[in-house]
Design the sequence.
């Protein structure tokens, strides 16, 4: 079915706008679906992207555009990574070869890209809240538009989606919720709700009870009953029907009208179901069953692996065993790998260590940990808030919880970090993955963590310069366990990963650990001692690589300091450096400037002034991310764009250090 | 029943420990409950505090201590303001006259106060997540303790509580959830879940269907049916019973065993219900109906007014009409009052303005708005996340949403502020109440907002110096509506409130508005131009009052600048001031130092250096909150403790400005 040659796309070629799609019959739409599926596999084989989830929503997307009218009607794609088909059908098909590339098509929905994208999405579980807001606005203005939220069963585990359902059930506004149920979120989907959904599909109690009552009736017919009994039987039947003729009783009880479940790969069925709920003025939930990876063998068989894929080999002989092309080469270890392996090795001698993830076990590599220590691994679904507070409860009772979480998602648990972890000063370790710039773009940039964690009392905020440091930081944080510790690392190959491998081979997994002096910084290059670079985390290596060019092109040899901790500061070293009144200190970090590492250095300097008001201190200048949302694109491109690449730093610091 | 004389407390005097309580019979416990109720009213008449909610949980608390064994067993009080009875019964009765005073009893649960307080609480909806974490730890260690979460129907609307229930339903650990259902959270409780709970109490469908089936059976008896029909009828009855003989079907479907509802003011019934679930190793939800304010007429009649009370008059003749004693005097207007009145007045000519609150309509004064514009007022229950994203959806569709929220609660929606409001650059106005220090203590300090909002692109972050400014900022933000704006104000009487009243009287509510140049700062006192104070928001007035003492005691007359915005900076003015190379600039703010207003000033200075590396700039020193959690106590006491009072500033700045 899949070939390297571009597939034929007769119907797809004819559908340049949603308006043209509307003219097709349901049979033709089914053909269109098949073509789209081929085109997606073909396109993603080159660019990479979210394969399985998009193959799952082909028919739903077609049906939505058949029944609804964007941009007048608002379709809100929860998370937004399953909108490829939507993008193809709304004028962006010709740009698919640029998907997720710098300046190319965004991998998520993006109103700046098309008026058919009603709102930005990238994080989970926001769509119903948005829909509620939009429906209230519509009714306020007396408009006619429909508001549709498309949310997965994974997104439904997120607390804010449940808050929104609860509110919608109360206000009874006309919103259509499409529950795209593929029985998994990014990780395996967990929780009572998903099990409940599963039961919905397995047994329809009403059908049972109805059959039985029908049977009773049949026999009663022979039994010449008095009319009162007949009436009662009718009432029981009606009540049973009214109250239980729905597998979605939980939703019904919350005030949301449930219909379904229906087959999400039957275009006609989906179109009919949408037509049935479209004009309702009360909340509607349409439960649609889909299969992730539908139509592409390998992705059907392993939709987790094919959730997000790099460019992959596309061959006619492609089978379930096929691997993304990168799998052939020896894979460079990422910081995520190093983190997970460190956890596994520490867990061997720390029996009370447990690992927690909010549905990102695959992305963070934690799935390996779960294989080795299944009973000490907790995937709580897309519930960052619950994950953090649960960890606090565990720590209070003597466990050593490690929360593995992406920087961008930890934003959702900031209150829990403050209120439940930090106030109690509990030893919870946060492994903050994807800290810094990521290719996914503005919704996913992990650039606020340094700032907001530094503001919280009791926190230690670390960032390793390389793989060895990351491993030892994990070890040290778990061993010392004095209070909350955050270790942030970028989404990238780990610096010095091969040295780490050699170390582990030589000394074994346990002896290769050595404690890190977490709040001491390290002078890596003494330099001239007057021009001073304080680099945090990922910036250490980039700055180190810039030194030769600074020396060669500008004749300057700055001191380079590896700042392990953004909090606490290495006060002794800083006092020394700030005391060099003629020195210029420059701080580097891969995070927003406001309140970041550099701000911390300046805050410290400002306090020294109160101690010794007449003393002149060295000037501090901060290099960090600009105050804007950063688009998508490969990390090296983005780093250069914002001035944090080796070359950009040389260009900026050479003249600065040599100016006077 | 209530007198100024201390009530007799025969039983309460005998119960010094939970162990002694266990010896009492259920009848004796009922007497104890009556005594506790009197003592609470009596104590709170002097100190103020959360009256109604504590009167509601007297019997529940007694029963919990009768059946469970703290501190071995963990009782987690959600929100924590309803733990007064618990405190009385765990050795803290003699300290009740210090309730909520500086260095006195905390108004919330606090493990630093007693080993019987299993965890800190202050924010809503955390208890089930904590319980899940503690139960997992218990089972990991093979311990025998029970874990009990006591949560209100209000707390249950919070997303993270729903996340936790979902997870608990999946992992099936032994946790007892006490649902204390008084049909309201702080505000009137909203949402599908609460309506569902109400229906549970109104109709038990099963009883209905059972009666009808029984009736059918009776008549069928005459009808000589064949045995197969009989069998089927029995099956229908059994299935109906199994599946629907529970008003808690929603919980059951999510994997939580439901029992109840039971009368929460019948000690014996509560004790028996607790005994029944105590030793279960699966999740249990016990639904208990209570009445807020139970036993105290005025509080029963108006539990919202008596949610949190100041000290009040306690008279034998106290009736439903009694008011807290403060009500007699002309009440000084708070910033909350000024904010709400401004909203009401702007709403008169801005028909698209809507106000949103996450269950804090009373505390924030927004209830007045809801009376004038009920159709433009949205209380979404304790759902900060949903509130913010719903507002984003509204703004996208042309409404002008204003989110009124406490600083400490906005932490829970930080991700939504970034992901749904700021990325889209939507004109949502955040009225951030209780920004700065509050008497409630560490869980409620509103001290992070300046830092984390300043880090977010597209945001304007304002703080008024007085009532007139606050009013005009609201007006300006709504009129201009260019992007997200935060206006933070303290929990206190508003400076210049009477001037504002005169202004409104003279010009009328509409003409009294005038636009504010939001990003221009104002030089209030030119001073010597060398010693410069940049004060943000609430610190302006405090600094202004400190000027005479600085002049008198130290002979220094600093310039005083009112910094309206922490973001953006007033770049022109700052360039001028920073350019005075011999000047000393001191920044003042009522927030954490890390990343706050002062950090912003230094970040700006550090960027000027890159433009002109050889220029010497004025030094900047930051005065802000220390890096620690701040305890409870009256705001003036706390401000002085942290060095932000008039006197403390004089003592610090006088010597600093005159040092050399």
Sequence:
């Amino acid at each position: 079915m899949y070939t390297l040659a571009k597939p034929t796309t007769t119907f797809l070629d004819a559908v340049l706008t949603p308006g043209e799609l509307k003219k097709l019959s349901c049979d033709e739409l089914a053909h269109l679906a098949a073509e789209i599926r081929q085109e997606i596999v073909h396109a993603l084989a080159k660019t990479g992207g979210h394969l399985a989830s998009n193959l799952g929503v082909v028919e739903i997307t077609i049906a939505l555009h058949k029944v609804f009218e964007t941009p007048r009607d608002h379709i809100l794609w929860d998370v937004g990574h399953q909108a490829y088909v939507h993008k193809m059908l709304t004028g962006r098909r010709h740009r698919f070869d640029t998907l997720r590339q710098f300046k190319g098509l965004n991998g998520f929905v993006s109103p700046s890209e098309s008026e058919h994208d009603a709102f930005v999405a990238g994080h989970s579980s926001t769509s119903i809240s948005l829909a509620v807001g939009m429906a209230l606005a519509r009714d306020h203005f007396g408009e006619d538009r429909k508001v549709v939220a498309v949310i997965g069963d994974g997104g439904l585990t997120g607390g804010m989606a449940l808050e929104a359902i609860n509110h919608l059930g109360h206000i009874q506004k006309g919103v259509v919720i499409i529950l795209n149920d593929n029985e998994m979120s990014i990780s395996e989907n967990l929780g009572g709700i998903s099990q409940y959904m599963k039961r919905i599909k397995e047994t329809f109690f009403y059908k049972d009870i109805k059959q039985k009552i029908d049977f009773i009736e049949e026999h009663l017919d022979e039994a010449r009953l008095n009319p009162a009994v007949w009436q009662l039987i009718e009432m029981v039947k009606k009540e049973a029907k009214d109250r239980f003729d729905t597998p979605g009783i939980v939703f019904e009880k919350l005030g949301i009208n449930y219909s379904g479940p229906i087959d999400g790969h039957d275009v006609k069925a989906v179109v009919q179901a949408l037509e049935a709920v479209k004009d309702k003025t009360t909340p509607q939930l349409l439960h649609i069953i889909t299969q992730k990876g539908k139509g592409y063998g390998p992705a059907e068989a392993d939709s987790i692996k094919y959730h997000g894929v790099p460019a992959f080999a596309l061959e006619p002989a492609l089978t379930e065993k096929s691997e993304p092309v990168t799998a052939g080469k020896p894979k460079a270890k990422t910081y995520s790998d190093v983190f997970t392996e460190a956890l596994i090795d520490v867990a061997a001698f720390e029996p009370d260590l447990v690992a927690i993830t909010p549905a990102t076990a695959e992305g963070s590599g934690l799935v390996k940990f779960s294989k080795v220590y299944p009973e000490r691994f907790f995937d709580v679904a897309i519930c960052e808030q619950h994950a953090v507070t649960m960890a606090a409860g565990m720590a209070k009772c003597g466990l050593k919880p490690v929360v593995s979480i992406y920087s961008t998602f930890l934003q959702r648990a900031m209150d829990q970090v403050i209120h439940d972890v930090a106030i109690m000063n509990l030893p919870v370790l946060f492994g903050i993955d994807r800290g810094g710039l990521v290719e996914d773009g503005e919704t996913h940039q992990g650039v606020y963590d340094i700032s907001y964690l530094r503001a919280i009392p009791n926190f230690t905020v670390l960032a390793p310069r390389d793989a060895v440091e990351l491993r030892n930081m994990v070890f040290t944080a778990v061993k010392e366990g004095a209070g909350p510790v955050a270790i942030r690392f970028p989404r990238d190959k780990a610096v010095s990963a091969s040295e780490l491998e050699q170390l582990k081979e030589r000394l074994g997994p346990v002896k290769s650990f050595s404690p890190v002096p977490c709040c001491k910084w390290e002078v890596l290059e003494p330099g001239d001692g007057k021009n001073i670079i304080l680099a945090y985390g990922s910036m250490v290596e980039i700055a180190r690589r810039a030194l030769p060019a600074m020396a060669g092109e500008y004749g300057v040899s700055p001191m380079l300091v590896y700042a392990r901790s953004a909090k606490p500061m290495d006060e002794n070293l800083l006092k020394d450096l700030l005391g060099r009144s003629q020195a210029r200190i420059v701080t580097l970090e891969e995070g927003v400037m406001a309140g970041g590492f550099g701000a911390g250095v300046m805050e410290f300097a400002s306090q020294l002034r109160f101690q010794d008001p007449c003393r002149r201190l060295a000037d501090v200048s901060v290099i960090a991310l600009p105050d804007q949302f950063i688009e998508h694109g490969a990390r090296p491109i983005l780093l250069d764009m914002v001035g944090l690449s080796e070359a950009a730093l040389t260009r900026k610091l050479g003249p600065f250090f040599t100016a006077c």
